[in-house]
Task: structure prediction
Amino acid sequence: MSGAQGAGVNPSATARDLGALFDPRAVAVLGASNDRSKYGNWISVQALRMQGRRPVYLVNRRGEPVLGEPTHRSLGELPEPVDLVVVAVPSAGFEDAVEDALAAGAKAIVGITAGFGELGAEGRAREAALAARVREAGAVLLGPNCLGVLDSTSGLYLASNPLPAGPVALLSQSGNMALELSRFLIDRDLGFSRFASLGNQADLTVADLIRSCAAHDGTELIAVYCEDFGDGRDFVEVAAEARAAGKPVVLLTVGGSEASVRGARSHTGALTSDTAVIDAACRAAGVDRVSSPREMADLLAMLHRFGDAPARRVAVLADGGGHASVASDIADAHGLSVPEFPAALSEALRGELTPSAGVGNPVDLAGAGEQDITSFARTLDLLLGSPEVDSVLVTGYFGGYGDYGPELAAAELATARVMGERITLLGKPVAVHTMCADSAPAEELRRHGVPVFRAVEDAAQSLGMLARRDPTPRQAPRPRTDAQPVADDGYWTARELVRAAGVALPPAQLAADEAEAVAAARAIGGPVVVKALGLLHKSDSGGVALGLATPETVREAVADMSRRLDPPGFCVEAMADLRDGVELIVGVQRDPRFGPVAMVGLGGIATEVLRDTAFALAPVGRDEALELLSRLRSAALLRGVRGRPGVDLDALADAVAAITEVAAAHPEIAELEVNPLLATPKGCFGLDARIVLDA
Result:
């Protein structure tokens, strides 16, 4: 089950009124059916749950009773206007059905019908026309090719399957993903405030729905499964607004493998973006990206319980040495720090535990559970009360001690109650792994909202996801697009565009032949570089000659290139001093959904070999440029290592910002690249540039 490509993206970045979609006064199901294999039947079953709360009309062209309820032959026969119409009729009749719905007063239409944009250009054209007609009428369209809508806070049940109620709004382009996530959430005592099946996003986009859910009082968290983001910058803006409003957005999407991209395109027609681009968009918006429905459920549970609380410095609490050591390794693998405790905390723990207990982090109770089960609560209380501890990972046998007798069972359950109360009071993140996840003490912890896991790696991962969250995401601004268009994609044009933006480049002159090249070299002075023009990859083609110190070597280089490459001309540049320099690449590529995306990385010949890169939505300012550079694995080279001096980071960040700014300002530029960008202790210099214009 899935939706498809957004053929008709909503052009407006302003909030649309979705009251009729989520809280209609009266609804109708067009295409109601007794056939249990049809969506018209599934939707009707759910719709009848609303009887007594709002008028529900079933429409069937034969007028036969459906599910024992009377029906109408057409929307025109209804005794009153309806706010919301669900359309589940064959594709050939969908346009007429939309017109009938609008005539019946509908301000919201849910298109269950498939057979549009997911089938190709003709279907996308139909979608675009439908979306335009709906907007013209002042209504909204969800879908087509979707599975319906639900709002548990308004008692709206117009989805193909029942879903549990709770604080999570789910916006999903896959029905099966919604069903799987619902099962995971039930296990975590969570459910849905709203569900909207995105479908083809012909009219309403994921951004429209996020914006509405962010303003919805019954929604605390927003979960998204999306394959096509439509206007990616709109998605970033509304997701950032939701995060700022205290409603985190958790995203599951595709793009991590070639196979997933192929699947999304063939199954839904979605235009997917590279995973690095999506990660950059998530960082800009403060969106939490996950890789599976279970991971999504775990993070939603942690966010619901602990919000934005820090979690990186974790204390490991175990009742056995094996669990303590394994949990510590797994915590470290998930990006958590397991620091040694300060002496005062270790001494306090020593006062509560047996002499054989480990008190340095991890904490090993070493059999204290059987001797005094309440030691779990006292130890946890000390850990949570320490300013050196952000979070606690409990692992081991807690929850199973009741098997040793009724007295210990009662004491363990009481201890779980105390632990839950203290976790609630102190508010620090706690994840509990237990071998006995179905026990009464485990259920008692869950009753207090404490996440309980069957596997220690899931518990550690959930804390790691909290720890990796950016406390202050920086939303990427929409780029200005008022710059004078670039006329051509030649090297000199690219070079001058970058130079005019404020990036320093070596002195250079154009030359048409050997004589002009020699004259240019004399005027520049010192060793020069000669580059053949008109080549996309000059070095690979033998179109670059370095370190030419005499007129004879300049003349020979130009003659050789003329004979082999027949270029339209040459650029003669001063040879840069590469000593103490670090070669970087800075590029901007225009993504079809998210617009210009900046990349920085180790440059020169190492670019494609090491693939040490970092990405952000462009343009970026100086601070974000510094943050990008710090994410490189080779960042230590910029700060100086093994006697090499550090580079001028301020000049480098300014150059990165300037390159991304000028590229983003030119929508006709598909790619702009400066490689290498030489960073030195004395400044930063662009040594080569290229642009690719949009076809």
Summary: The radius of gyration is 31 Å. The longest helix spans residues 406-426.
